[in-house]
Design a protein that fits this description.
Largest sheet: 8 strands, mixed
Distance between the termini: 63 Å
Helix content: 40-55%
Shape: rod-shaped
Number of helices: 18
Strand content: 15-25%
Structural class: alpha+beta
Number of strands: 18
Length: 598
């Protein structure tokens, strides 16, 4: 069933195909990129962490080895100097072997200095006096006292100087806990280990979080305190000597950090790198993949566009063809462009249109011999076999003196004017929802309600008869010669029960109605000739339509098979027609019929 409220989509199949396929490609590529980026990032994070912990371990090992070696060397040297009466040659050997040593002194628990030596030449080059260094020692004496507990103390003593300097405090010897050695050394020998390549930042802090060594010398000279850095806090509170930690910096950037305690006075090595820098290459690859995805999508959209166009164009052709068929145009010229399902559908559609065209031609040809509605029902197989009892209106019409008229004309002329007359009369029947049952020579039999009932069938039949009256008057205009004689007709109408159905033999059948009501209609039509009238109706028609039409009572007639005489009426016209004849004389004057012979 055709849905009158059906509204087609604004998006064609071509658009839908492009959107669906492009979406699938986009989701697939985007998913691949996201998954690949995720795993690559995870793998890269593992590598960064491993690299961080290796760097801290290596630097911690090197720094610890250097400090331990320095401690042993100074312990031996200071022991020799303390026992020797002169120390000038030994001092020269000490500073010659390690020019980074600026000052060495032996102190007791009262912070009273014992043997003290300074690298005079280097200190002068740096603009530093021995007194300044000793003042630093006195200022931090509480810190250095920890060395009496067999602890190594490392302090950044660079503040105020042009060169990074490290102060180291440690026991004089393992068996003497009443003396310590405090040395001031330049940090150059340690800083090389903190000059890491890439984006990793490495530095050394003491147990208070203050910078001891850093790749950035300015950080050392300023004595920066890194105690607020989460990775430094993690190291200070951790019971382990190494660890890894992801933290957010002060600028809301995330960092990956590692620490390694060197085992000397709470000093540790910190290695940290920002995730943005660590994963920079990951993001670069992701960005390049996105560019490649966009390029691939654009190429795919172009390919899908032409692919969708190749698929949709035959479908759009079929849509146009279906609209033509819906409008009644069955003649189509469709040629399959492919051998796939679309091609098979196109070929089947063309075959269907040819079948519909042939069926329509058959229907038109069939309709010329039988009623259109009967032809339609018959072709659909909906015409019932057998008879049905129905209430119908029956009309009979006949041309007066047709035999004498036809004798004066050639056969082709008879057929020509008869076809013209029949076309005009049949139109009047069809326009009023009736159908022509049959042609009987020059006579017409029409019915209302035999096939289907629509409206007031008695009213429709009377209206059709009136239309036939005026159609005949129009038909007769310009006629009245021997070759074109004027016509007069008689019409009889009746309403009553009939038997409708297919009647005939096995070889030939027709759909018609039979019964007393049909016979009475024929009998009434025959009276029009004797009464010189064009339209006479039965009492049943009169009763059903007297409120709409003007009638004139006629004498009752006796009909075979009826006990009582049948009342009949002459149809004058419609009640709403101001030109309606008022009597039979006016009627005969209108239709051009003579008065009847007495």
């Amino acid at each position: 069933m055709n849905d009158k409220n059906f509204t087609p989509s604004r998006f064609t199949i071509r658009v839908k195909l492009m959107v669906i396929i492009s979406s699938i490609l986009f989701l697939s590529l985007a998913s691949i990129i996201m998954v690949a980026t995720y795993f690559f990032k995870e793998d890269n994070e593992i590598r960064v962490k491993e690299n961080n912990i290796k760097i801290t371990e290596v630097i911690a090992l090197n720094v610890k080895s250097e400090i331990n070696a320095l401690k042993q060397s100074l312990q031996v040297t200071m022991s020799v100097i303390s026992q020797s009466k002169t120390d000038s040659s030994i001092k020269q050997i000490l500073f010659r072997e390690d020019p980074n040593i600026l000052y060495v002194g032996v102190y007791d628990k009262a912070n009273q200095p014992g043997v003290r030596i300074g690298n005079t030449q280097v200190l002068e080059d740096l603009g530093i006096s021995t007194n300044v260094l000793e003042e630093f020692i006195r200022t931090n004496k509480d810190r250095f006292k920890q060395s009496f507990n067999n602890t190594t103390v490392l302090l950044n003593s660079s503040i105020g100087f042009r060169s990074p300097i490290l102060a180291i405090g440690f026991p004089y010897s393992e068996d003497k806990s009443n003396k310590i050695i405090i040395a001031m050394i330049r940090l150059e020998k340690f800083l090389e280990a903190f000059q890491t390549s890439g984006n990793i930042e490495t530095f050394m802090v003491n147990d208070e979080g203050r910078i001891i060594a850093h790749s950035d010398v300015s950080m050392i000279l300023s004595g920066a305190n890194m105690v607020d850095l989460p990775i430094v806090q993690k190291m200070r509170t951790s019971t382990l000597d190494n660890g890894q930690f992801r933290y957010k910096g002060a600028d809301d950037l995330w960092f990956l950090g590692s620490f390694k305690k060197i085992g000397l006075g709470g000093v540790g090595i910190i290695s940290t790198v920002s995730e943005d820098k660590a994963f920079e290459e990951v993001y670069n690859i992701q960005r390049r993949n996105i560019y490649l995805m966009i390029a691939a999508l654009n190429l795919a959209i172009i390919i899908v566009f032409f692919f969708a166009k190749r698929i949709s164009e035959p479908i759009l052709t079929l849509v146009t063809a279906s609209k033509n068929i819906e409008s009644g145009n069955y003649h189509l010229e469709l040629k399959p462009e492919t051998r796939d399902e679309i091609g098979i559908l196109t070929n089947s559609f063309q075959s269907m249109s040819q079948g519909l065209e042939e069926r329509e031609k058959l229907k038109v040809s069939f309709g010329r011999f039988v009623n259109d509605e009967i032809a339609e029902l018959s072709m659909k197989g909906q015409l019932k076999v057998g008879g049905e009892k129905k209430e119908c209106a029956i009309l009979f019409s006949d041309i007066r003196s047709f035999t004498s008229i036809s004798e004066k004309l050639r056969p082709e002329e008879v057929v020509e004017f008869l076809n013209q007359y029949m076309s005009a009369m049949v139109s009047c029947v069809k326009n009023n929802r009736g159908y022509v049952d049959k042609f009987i020579g020059d006579a017409i039999m029409a019915t209302w309600g035999a096939l289907k009932s629509s409206g007031n069938i008695s009213q429709d039949s009377v209206k059709a008869a009136l239309d036939m009256r005026f159609a005949l008057l129009k038909f007769n205009q310009g006629r009245g010669t021997a070759k074109k004689p004027s016509l007069r007709i008689g019409i009889g109408l009746n309403y009553g029960p009939v038997i409708s159905g297919q009647i005939g033999s096995d070889e030939k059948m027709e759909y018609t109605v039979i019964g007393d009501a049909v016979n009475l209609a024929s009998r009434v039509e025959g009276l029009t000739k004797d009464l010189s009238l064009d339209i006479i109706v039965s009492e049943s028609i009169y009763n059903n339509t007297k409120k709409l039409f003007n009638y004139y009572d006629l004498p009752a007639i006796s009909v075979k098979g009826k006990e009582k005489p049948q009342k009949i009426y002459a149809l004058l016209g419609a009640l709403n027609d101001k030109n309606c004849p008022q009597n039979l004389n006016d009627l005969r004057s209108l239709i051009g019929y003579p008065k009847p012979k007495k």
